[in-house]
Amino acid sequence: MKPSLAYLQTRISVDPVAGRVYWIDATKHHAPLNGKEAGSPRKNSRSGKIYWHVKVDSLPIKRSHLVFLFAHGRWPDLQIDHINGDSLDDRIANLREATITQNAWNHKTRRKSSSTPMGVRVTRSGKYQARIAVNKKQIAIGIFDTPEMASQAYQQKRKEFFNEYA
User: Stretch 113-133: mean pLDDT, rounded?
Assistant: First the structure.
């Protein structure tokens, strides 16, 4: 169960502009932490991304969620998307609510074995094919002579399909 905003306001202070959280009451056993920045970076076991977490009463909470809560007065209903793709940049200007799908659209790179840009693959003929997945459906964008041309076409389609989340 998530702690209430009223309770958290007695334990931490949040600077939404800077995206930082500070201890007000770090408990009697950690009194020297009062006034210092709260939390530490933790690696997500599934994605490998690093997010800043703050432990309040042994409950790890993402700093981005705390910043959102203090800025908007409510816990986020959806996922929190970092607009610039930096999961440690928790400034309120860099945070927005997003569905799982919208959040996935914001990825700048994908894990792949090829050295070609995201959305580009080499065909048997040695040319470069650009393609994109939209709603779990692969859409072929075209065949190009260079990986740069294919990547440019892919990025253009990303903006067309994913708007602000591209």
Answer: 86
Give the three-class secondary structure for 28: helix
Evaluate whether 134 touches 127 at the Cβ level (below 8 Å). Answer: no
Give the helix ranges, DSSP H, for the chain.
5-11, 63-72, 100-105, 147-162
Compute the residue count for the chain: 166
Domain 5-103 has CATH 3.90.75.20: yes
Tokens of 69: 């809560």
**Identity of the amino acid at 16:** P
**Alpha-carbon span 20 to 106, nearest angstrom:** 23
Q: What amino acid occupies position 49?
A: K
Domain ranges for the chain, please list them.
5-103, 109-165
Q: Which CATH superfamily is domain 109-165 in?
A: AP2/ERF domain (3.30.730.10)
How many CB atoms lie under 10 A from the CB of residue 31? 10
For residue range 106-120, list pLDDT tens digits in order. Answer: 665 555 566 788 888
C-alpha dihedral (84, 87, 93, 97), degrees to nearest 10? 100
pTM given for the model = 0.70
